Amino acid sequence: MKIGLFIPCYVDAVYPEVGVATYKLLTSLGLDVEYPLNQTCCGQPMANAGFEKQAIPLAEKFEDKFKGFDYVVAPSVSCVAFVKINYPRLLKGKHECTTSDKIMDVIEFLHDVVKVDKLPGQFPHKVSLHNSCHGVRELGLSSPSEQNEPKFNKIKDLLELKEGIEVVEPERPDECCGFGGMFSIEETAVCEQMGKDKVKRHMDTGAEYITGPDCSCLMHMAGIAKKQDLPIQFKHAVEILAAGI
């Protein structure tokens, strides 16, 4: 099983430690992981802004860069969801599309493919789990609250493998934090208020950390917490899973 590691541009530029933790965690499990050099943005920002044509060359490059792997794994639910859901339509009649069928968020990959049932190391802290919209409703990392179906949460399942951790969820566990990519630029006041409400609900749990599978949501909430000087820390779920490895 050959794995191509995709590190989205904003993770590479702003949260490189998340990329390092992803690589460290995957290789510690004995997996064959390669980070293809010269990889670029998947095209999500352009497409979300209404410039789909500008996203197509990036999608074609992405396909060429990762076509030789059995799985493409990334620590970003929004980028993974974009490739999985939108590439077949964007590339139809223009370029072969194979990555949409084999790309997975690292949480999804560890839970569903590797089926991790134990992890070394400790994380003796109380963490509040943020269920990002793309992860819930497009990748199925957890059950959506609006659906009448059995409850599950793959992120929580993995986090609870770490010794000493206490995982809690806020009221309205899968309500949006307000970031939403372009939404945060076009509707700044609404975005900010949603973020404030979400951070408050997380803090009401008494957690020391807010964690989740997407840096963009964590970045948005961390900015709000910093402006309000709130005593809460933020850490991507994969960093917690890799702690002590």
Throw out a few tags for this protein:
Rossmann fold, 2 domains, four-stranded parallel β-sheet, 12 helices, globular
SSE map:
Elements: E1 2-5, H1 9-14, H2 16-28, E2 32-34, H3 44-48, H4 52-66, E3 71-74, H5 77-91, E4 103-105, H6 106-114, E5 126-129, H7 133-137, H8 154-159, E6 166-168, H9 183-186, H10 188-203, E7 209-212, H11 215-227, E8 233-236, H12 237-241
Parallel strand pairs: 1-2, 1-3, 3-4, 5-6, 5-7, 7-8
Structural features, described:
There is one protein chain. The longest helix has 16 residues, at 188-203. Helix 4 (52-66) packs across helix 5 and helix 10 packs across helix 11 (215-227). The protein has 245 residues and is α/β, with parallel strands linked by helices. The protein starts with a strand and ends with a helix. It has two domains: 2-114, Rossmann fold, CATH 3.40.50; 126-241, 3-Layer(aba) Sandwich (Rossmann fold). Helix content is 46%, strand content 12%.
Shape estimate: globular
- Could you give the order of strands across the largest sheet? 2-1-3-4
Helix and strand composition category: alpha/beta
Q: From the alpha carbons, calculate the radius of gyration and give it in angstroms.
A: 18 Å
Low-confidence stretches: none
CATH architecture of the largest domain: 3-Layer(aba) Sandwich
**DSSP strand count:** 8
* Number of discrete domains: 2
State mean pLDDT (0 to 100 scale). Answer: 95
How many H/I helical runs? Answer: 12
Measure the end-to-end span.
22 Å
